[in-house]
Amino acid sequence: MYNFVLPLKFKKMKMIKTAFIVVLICLICFPARGVPTIRGTLTIDISEGIITGDITLENFELDGNSAYLLNHGLNIKEVRDGSGVRLAYKRLQESPRYESSAYVIPTAGTQSSNYVPSSISFLYTGKFPVYVSSEQAAKDWKGNIAFNDSGLRTDGLQSALFPTFFTYKNDKVHNLVTYDLTIDCPSCSLIYIAGDIERSGPKAKFKTTHPSSPMLVAGSYKSSAYQGTHIIESSQHRDTHFSIGTNWTDVIDSTKSLLSCDIGSEVPFMFLELESLDRRRSWMWASTNAIVSVGNKSTLKPFLSGNNLDNYVDDFSFLVHEYSHLCMPGLSQGGSLSLLVNESIAEYISLISTGEKFGQAALDNKVCELQQSLAENPTTSNIHTLKHAMTSLDQYSQRYIFGPLLLLQVERTYGRDFTLNFINQVIAKSNEGVAIDIALLNSVFKVINKKLSDSKDPNVHLTSIDQLVVTHIDCNSNELMGSDPIVNGIQ
């Protein structure tokens, strides 16, 4: 925030106009800090698995209780401030996130705060293994920066391919950035960064003013477009025609009917179908304006080109889950429960959308699959509360199994309107930059519950979501998710 002191009175209107113009110019030149910006050049050698970056990070919060995140496999050569002065840096023993290392710029004579320049540049390089398709790896998981003989794939949040600002006070990864980047990849025919559109290699410039998570994909890929939607695909996926039918519209409409969602329309929506080195494994993720599918056969194009959802229950469910992520970008950034809440909401929206589109039996089947995943394990079969799950379950089970079951329990207890109101308010808080932790969840839950208390059982006085008990439901009954809320499972 910049303050300007102006004269209280002007003798001439010309002076007022001049002063206004000066202030306006200053505000344009020095925008309020909020969304970080990255700019610079990244060079990629596909055959050798080498990445070299010269990236500047600026327009971030000047908070000394902070750090810079960069992928573990990327080695820093030097760090400079905005004037080009080299800075001493220190790598912390523990990193707050993912596959990254955390770095700070120590301030001489103090242990409580670190130096945070208004602009900071990192020169770094790293070498990663390159896998070839003929190897058919037993498990295609090489990390979030992954090379094979077709190209490079990264994700936007977890890979930390670019320097990323992190603040400890709100446990926030500032991965949503604007950028002005040049990517130089001599052997690449196509390059793409989420937030912009794909461009032809070997060298391309990318820019966006819309906060984006800069996922990068580069290599021997081809792209096509249909009705304003683009698809990037590897060679093994080019056996089917790309078009857009009503199936994709059904995904969007179903998700937006449940979540407050505005992913922007600055650039076309993107689909990416990339190859997997494991014939048995496939997965999806979402980033800014794109959904990525990794596998050995085309799964997206047959679904997207269709006008009938029959036989596409799983495809519909997967895509609703991923599209839901795009509706809540703030949940990827910060808080001890941000990832758990992010995945749990996406899976809950996917479940109830499946029920609405394919009927009660389809929803019941998926609910029973989740419940069975916990029940069949003696160490998890007696876990019924959020606090218990956070201390006793692995992260996958927390996010993809217990979390959705908890939200389904909220719906069974208080109704769908209550549950969606709770979810959308949590998303709104996260988009405002509020850290997602148990205190925030309980606060939102208590406020909504108080508003609805007059219309509920007067004996219920639930003040926090971590008091709610997930009850096991009979998978042999005719109706698992009743339409009428029931007041049960209160501890």
Structural commentary:
The protein has 491 residues and is an alpha+beta fold. The chain has 4 domains: 1-32; 35-220, tricorn interacting facor f3 domain (Immunoglobulin-like, Sandwich); 226-327, no CATH class; 329-467, Neutral Protease, domain 2 (Orthogonal Bundle), CATH 1.10.390.10. Helix content is 29%, strand content 25%. It contains 10 helices and 23 strands.
List the helices and strands and how they pair.
Elements: H1 13-29, E1 37-45, E2 50-58, E3 66-71, E4 75-81, E5 86-87, E6 90-91, E7 100-104, E8 119-127, E9 130-131, E10 145-148, E11 151-154, E12 164-167, E13 172-174, E14 177-184, E15 190-193, E16 199-200, E17 203-212, E18 216-219, E19 222-226, E20 229-233, H2 246-256, E21 269-275, E22 283-287, E23 290-295, H3 300-304, H4 313-326, H5 338-358, H6 360-375, H7 386-392, H8 395-414, H9 416-431, H10 438-452
Parallel strand pairs: 1-14, 9-10, 20-21, 21-23
Antiparallel strand pairs: 1-2, 2-8, 3-7, 3-12, 4-5, 4-8, 6-7, 10-11, 11-18, 12-13, 14-17, 15-16, 15-18, 19-20, 22-23
Helix pairs in contact: 2-4, 4-5, 5-6, 5-8, 6-8, 8-9, 9-10
